[in-house]
Amino acid sequence: MISVAINGYGTIGKRVADAVAAQDDMKVVGVSKTKPDFEARVAIEKGYDLYVSIPEREKLFDDAGIPVSGTVKDMLEEADIVVDATPEGIGAKNLELYREKGIKAIFQGGEKHDAIGLSFNSFTNYEESLGADYTRVVSCNTTGLCRTLKPIDDLCGIKKVRAVMVRRGADPVQVKKGPINAIVPNPPTVPSHHGPDLKTVMKGVNIHTVALLVPTTLMHQHNIMVELENPVDADEIKAKLDETTRVMLVKASEGLASTAEIMEYAKELGRSRNDLFEIPVWEESINVVEGELFYMQAVHQESDAVPESVDAIRALLELEEDNMKSIMKTNRAMGIL
Ligand code: NAD
């Protein structure tokens, strides 16, 4: 049984903790918090040992009546591997600590590829992280692109991809972020960083992306155009995506015509926190015109890359050589379709 520490128990960290706890080959030895807020209290109620990220703040936890088991350094002593889910840029700073402690670490998409040296997606480059000390699970958007572009590449080859990424302005909990009433080209420069990020895990793919922020918190939405090496028809693409795990075809005609309705569907599925780990692709949007494939998909930014963090643990510790074996194991434990 592998012992996993979660450093940074926020939007991603708390989901990774529950996903790890659901597996039969790994367990959570602790989670870390910077302050004694409601998430810290819930972590304790769920049975996770809580560690403080900023040692000087231990008294604040005592005063709040939230028991802690020590500091992050103590937590790392208990663990075989750490999943770092701290805010963007902090993970890379923590790398020094992990080196010092001689512990393997998995980082999230907010870190730069160059700072970590290796990036990860379960479907496109699992084997590159086998036995590595550190890897970075690519961002929610890049994970979404990998999930559908990889099977399409396998089916008929990809000549060129163009994608327009419509990004949620903030996560539901982020009251200080926006926009509230604007569409913001973000970044305003073209192409955006999403294409280069995909190339860190899907080498050689010819992709350029543009991105904008919109006033919604629910999901990102992608509009993807793919010039195919060996053109196939829309039905073949539908069949391929339909059989691909962690991807689901949804029908606007069945009332799933928007990100709001897709999130309602996730609630109907009874998912914890209404999460949707799969990438929904609108079936009606899939079309091939003059050899070019068009489709639209959505990304539940808070959860889609969480199963990838579990697979990354197996890759780094070489618990599973075969990516599909890890993917199916993770899926079964998390109830992924
Ligand atoms: P978050 O702010 O929700 O959570 C971060 C947690 O880390 C918080 O609990 C915070 O208190 C804690 N923290 C802050 N400083 C710390 C420190 N020095 N040591 C330990 N813990 C510390 O952030 P998030 O949205 O979960 O993002 C985490 C990472 O995941 C980032 O790299 C982000 O880019 C990436 N990511 C986020 C999303 C998303 O949509 N939220 C999606 C995919 C990837």
TrEMBL record:
In alphabetical order, the GO MF annotations are: 4-hydroxy-tetrahydrodipicolinate reductase; glyceraldehyde-3-phosphate dehydrogenase (NAD+) (phosphorylating) activity; glyceraldehyde-3-phosphate dehydrogenase (NADP+) (phosphorylating) activity; NAD binding; NADP binding
Residue ranges constituting the Glyceraldehyde 3-phosphate dehydrogenase NAD(P) binding domain according to the UniProt record: 2-140
Q: In which pathway does it act?
A: Carbohydrate degradation; glycolysis; pyruvate from D-glyceraldehyde 3-phosphate: step 1/5
Name the Enzyme Commission number(s) assigned to this protein.
1.2.1.59
Q: What class of enzyme is it?
A: oxidoreductase
Give the residues annotated as coiled coil.
none
Reading the lineage from the top rank, the first entry is: Archaea
Location of this chain's protein in the cell? Cytoplasm
What keywords is this UniProt entry annotated with?
A: Cytoplasm, Glycolysis, NAD, NADP, Oxidoreductase
What does it catalyze?
A: D-glyceraldehyde 3-phosphate + phosphate + NAD(+) = (2R)-3-phospho-glyceroyl phosphate + NADH + H(+); D-glyceraldehyde 3-phosphate + phosphate + NADP(+) = (2R)-3-phospho-glyceroyl phosphate + NADPH + H(+)
Enzyme active site: C140 (nucleophile)
Q: Which InterPro entries match?
A: DapB_N (IPR000846), GlycerAld/Erythrose_P_DH (IPR020831), GlycerAld_3-P_DH_AS (IPR020830), GlycerAld_3-P_DH_cat (IPR020829), GlycerAld_3-P_DH_NAD(P)-bd (IPR020828), Glyceraldehyde-3-P_DH_2_arc (IPR006436), NAD(P)-bd_dom_sf (IPR036291)
Q: Which PROSITE patterns match?
A: GAPDH (PS00071)
Q: Which SUPFAM superfamilies match?
A: Glyceraldehyde-3-phosphate dehydrogenase-like, C-terminal domain (SSF55347), NAD(P)-binding Rossmann-fold domains (SSF51735)
Q: Which CDD domains match?
A: GAPDH_II_C (cd18127), GAPDH_II_N (cd02278)
Q: Which Gene3D superfamilies match?
A: Dihydrodipicolinate Reductase, domain 2 (3.30.360.10), NAD(P)-binding Rossmann-like Domain (3.40.50.720)
One Pfam family it belongs to: DapB_N
Binding-site residues for NAD(+), renumbered to this chain: T11, I12, G110, R168, Q301
Q: Name one GO biological process term.
A: glycolytic process
Oligomeric and partner information: Homotetramer.
Family (UniProt)? Belongs to the glyceraldehyde-3-phosphate dehydrogenase family.
The protein, known as: Glyceraldehyde-3-phosphate dehydrogenase
Gene name? gap
